[in-house]
């Protein structure tokens, strides 16, 4: 009986060993990695786990710490996950982790752990499902979806130049489906010859014209790169952009306004026909457009470079609108322009060109100046009139005046009424014209003379003058009036009464007060005898 018991026990041990061996064989056939660990040490690993860990055999894993194969940054999370397994059958839900291999490589896996008993002691069995292939498949699906959502055509080519891939954008650009072009030479797919190797060597974008399925041309920006399976072409459809550029060029060419684009350094990059036409008199027609043409402001003052519109916009970024500038021509005339300048690319001010648009307003400027002149000048004599005289006096009294008023002379031609009565108003007008011209010639270059009304004139001395020089100037004015004036077969003689008021540096009188003082002095001169001069007290 005892022998029978011994035999039975031996058979039982052998049976357990056999079962365990069969389970090992089954585990080794699993495509998932299976690992049993007790107290943090590996006690069993199937063939798949051994292969994934990158070791020669299972004996190289037995006894190793599980922590050796888990990256340090997630080790705490894994240990916390396993610490919740208290009873046999407790499961930790599937979790994606990165597993370290013996040579430092990483493998993404989905781990599921269960509490078990292993040789009579608590243990944990973990099943590892490799995510590498599913991740790769996901990536391929993502890349395929991405290619179908980009706006550029992406065309894959074999080494022989036949189409292998053709995304949705390429279908839209060329009007050909992927099924229609796959396996065909690329020139049939895009309607033009494409040399991928040459394109790669250019290291840039090639602008080419391709032909769509309906025969319409396509302006394409083409780049290429080599891949493991051949080439990939990136086809950017620039047809709409090129059409817009052509329309823009046609509009700019047809404009009556001049358009000039300046480089940030101030040199001209392009000028439309209107700009060439407007500025044709400024420079020889066959000369290149110059950006350093001298300009003057609306008042005729020469503008230094730092005050010119293009320079100011290039350095400040602030646009200028309808600024009036003048350009002197080779023939001595002046062209007036209304100019607007702004940055072409305000988002990139350091590299942005400056575009200037302008129209010729010479006729309007001259008409305006003519109207201003007529409003401020006497029609008969061409001298300043009363309003013009008041404006000049007021300007000369400002603190920032360039020329400071030093004296006001009020002049009245005596006996002009008798000339009109004796010889007629035409004779009186002739006397006024001749006498005013002579008096103007008697003045210094800086001085002004105006006709206020009838036979009354006012002289404005616009610079300081010594008394001796003032006396001589007044004598010249008297002679200008008294010298005989020829009229037909007669000679007419008149005299002038002159009133003078001097203007000091700190004089607080305004234009009206100065004229009143000079007028009063003139009447005092007339009262003392014709052809006399009196000073205001």
Question: Can you put this structure into words, describing what you see?
Answer:
- The structure is a single chain.
- α14 (416-423) runs antiparallel to α15 (425-442) and α15 packs antiparallel against α16 (467-482).
- This protein folds into 4 domains: 24-130, 2-Layer Sandwich (Beta-Lactamase); 135-241, PAS domain (Beta-Lactamase); 262-362, Beta-Lactamase (2-Layer Sandwich); 377-535, Reverse transcriptase/Diguanylate cyclase domain (Alpha-Beta Plaits, 2-Layer Sandwich).
- The strands form 6 sheets. A 5-stranded antiparallel sheet has the order 2-1-5-4-3. A 5-stranded antiparallel sheet has the order 7-6-10-9-8. A 5-stranded antiparallel sheet has the order 12-11-17-16-15, with helices on both faces.
- The radius of gyration is 51 Å and the shape is elongated.
- By secondary structure, the protein is α+β, with helices and mostly antiparallel strands.
- Helix content is 37%, strand content 29%.
- It is an enzyme of class 2 (transferase).
